[in-house]
Amino acid sequence: MRAERELTIIAQDPSVRAGPSGGDILTTKVTIPYEDLSAGPRGYRVHVVDYDASQRVFYEPAELGRDADDQFRNAPDQTLLTDPAFHAQNVYAIVMRVLCRFEFALGRRVAWSFRGHQINLVPHAFCDANACYSESDHSIFFGYVPTAHPDADHPIVFTCLSHDIVAHEATHALLDGLRDSYTLPSGPDQAGFHEAFADIVALLSVFGVEQIVGRLLAPNSAAADDQIGKERLEVEALKQSVLFGLAEEFGQEVSRFRRSALRRAVELPPDPDAPEDPRYEECHERGKILSAAVLNAFLEVWLGRMKDLLSLPGDSVPLQRAVRDGVAAAQHLLTMVIRALDYCPVVDLHFSEFLTALLTADYELLPDDGRYKYRDALRKQFALWGIGPPYILGHEDAGRILEEGIWERPKDEEKLRYEGIHPESLRRDPDEVFRFLWENRKTLRVFEHAHTVILSVRPCLRIGPDGFFVRETVSEYLQILDLRADQLRELKINKPEEMPGDTPVRLYGGGVLIFDEFSRLKYHICSRVNNADAQGKRLAYLWRNGIRDSDGRYGRSDGSPPGQRFARMHLRRDGQLPKEEWDA
Q1: pLDDT tens digits, residue range 32-44?
Q2: What radius of gyration, in Å, describes the C-alpha atoms of the chain?
Q3: I need a surface site. Which of 22, 27, 86, 108 has the fewest CB within 10 A?
Q4: Cross-strand pairs, 156
Q5: Are 369 and 376 in contact (CB under 8 A)?
């Protein structure tokens, strides 16, 4: 049986053309695991269901056999633009590619957030300028709209043909499966994290395609041995030709609705006061900080990889070398960004904690930071925005800053109790993990009066750059504490001044327990439910912005109908929902 399958996709979106003067739509081939597909295509993780609710049309399910890609390998543009079977193949291949990147980075299978194994992809779901993931429908929906250009190749713009949009929505779905608690009411950093993370993964995923990087670096280049001037490989030049170029190409059609979030982020001058600036409190503005820091770190590493080449005599360098270095930097950083999720707190995430998770997860596989110093670049770019590695979790009172940005490991003198704990069960059994947590609640300073539940137990096998393996078990727990506002003082938590004393309040806490290959605790990464300072800031932010819990599971933050949180998030970002409706 074949291990892999090659499928043709549109490299970015139909506005990006191959050749020195326009030409055909730029396509590429992606490699994904081979599986025995049924019509749709329908595989073990993805099911394409092509129903158009606006037109009430059900398209014939696409058949992708063993050599199904042959029909689109040299297909004319008109086929790519109009054939529903190709649209189905495009979304299937891109979502599977993103899923494979997540599973490679995390060293395990990644589940969706709902009870089920297959997510539905709907390429022509509705006539609307939107695309969204809906957890209650187990689906990702892609809209379509008339083009703004009367002389365009085709009068309809399909969001399902944009690599960026498909990867963005797939990331929402995967992040929701890994951390559905990140949609709980919290502070501005966590509110902005979902959109920023999806944008970062989408951009770095696109930069993993050599054809698109070469096209953006040198639009008029056609030959493999072409050169590129060194002046075009400086930071500001790369922003214009690559990051801005991507936003501009994308903005010709689809991004006229999406408002080019990538461009807005990279345009921002670094501001160390931004995290405390009220202008950056709104979640979409907040997300730009994270996007800008990671994207500029990517540019710094890319140039670092070409440092020796750029120092040679002459005014130009081989274009293909610049392209390969950019692709390698994007793929490595994408793996780091995804892998960091396991080292992030379960609730109340801050950008400083995400930075520390980036540094820590990478340190576990590569203690010396390697040749190209990805961690140094991330430290530098986050610092320009006033973000550094936070306090040592579990030692907030000490207020110490981590020199290497690494969570503190449990100390030997703390004498964690392993009596009666079965190492094998600790790698797979939530009850065994809860017993460990309960037996060590005082040592780990877990608040025992809150409702506590183990969310997951995930064995991982990570592969380092040197080819060696790191085995870990990642377990997550959530704590919930319901009380009245006038009871907050018992936990020394400040109540917002105008909040009535009988207002029902829900506090969230939780943590991540990372065990080594011998089932010994390596890290405890937590957001304490009784952390007075953190909970006081969270409540003040939620009260100030009118964000409250509803009756949904663990609470929902925006009053959206079930499953529509991400659709409304995109409408709010694009200016199609008024702020008061979003915050109500």
Answers
A1: 998 888 998 999 9
A2: 24
A3: 22
A4: 146
A5: yes
